[in-house]
């Protein structure tokens, strides 16, 4: 008997679609997009405002917005976001988010 694994998506090394750091007004301090989900700066900033408006008043750390997995943390007046695909393991994104938060502290940002 042969058993085959069914993967609903194409495997990829690009598990993180974007990393964002926003200030307490939702303005971009840092943004790095790793694919063309939001190809223009205008689309990126609209996405960032949307994501900030839906997450800055909540205590949870994970959201599913616009078909993307969003893991986020806030630290005083900074918001760290790691965005992955909707099928992405949120634990991977959370680890990237934690690493980014510690990196912000090292850089004097948090």
Describe this structure in words.
By secondary structure, the chain is α+β, with helices and mostly antiparallel strands. The protein has a domain at 16-88: 2-Layer Sandwich (Beta-Lactamase). Helices cover 29% and strands 31% of the residues. A five-stranded antiparallel β-sheet has the order 2-1-5-4-3, sandwiched between helices. A hairpin with a 4-residue loop joins β1 (16-23) and β2. The radius of gyration is 15 Å and the shape is globular. It starts with 15 loop residues before the first strand and ends with a helix.
Beta-strand percent range? 25-35%
CATH class of the domain at 16-88: Alpha Beta
Strand order of the largest sheet: 2-1-5-4-3
The topology string of helices and strands comes to EEHEEEH
State the shape: globular
Task: Enter the CATH topology name of the domain at 16-88.
Answer: Beta-Lactamase
Structural class: alpha+beta
Span of the ends, CA to CA: 55 Å
State mean pLDDT (0 to 100 scale).
76
Q: Which CATH architecture of the domain at 16-88?
A: 2-Layer Sandwich
SSE layout and pairing:
Layout (H helix, E strand, L loop, with lengths): L15 E8 L4 E6 L7 H15 L6 E4 L2 E8 L2 E8 L4 H17 L4
Antiparallel strand pairs: 1-2, 1-5, 3-4, 4-5
Family: Belongs to the adaptor complexes small subunit family.
Subcellular location: Cytoplasm; Golgi apparatus membrane; Cytoplasmic vesicle, COPI-coated vesicle membrane
Membrane topology: Peripheral membrane protein
């Amino acid at each position: 008997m042969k058993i085959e694994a069914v993967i609903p998506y194409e495997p990829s090394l690009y598990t993180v679609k974007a990393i964002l750091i926003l200030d307490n007004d939702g303005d971009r301090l840092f943004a790095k997009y790793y694919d063309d989900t939001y190809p223009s700066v205008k689309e990126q900033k609209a996405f960032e405002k949307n994501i900030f408006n839906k997450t800055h008043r909540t205590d949870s750390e994970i959201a599913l917005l616009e078909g993307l997995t969003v893991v986020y943390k806030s630290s005083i007046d900074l918001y760290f976001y790691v965005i992955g695909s909707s099928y992405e393991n949120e634990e991977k994104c959370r680890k990237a988010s934690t690493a980014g938060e510690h990196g912000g502290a090292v850089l004097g940002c948090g």
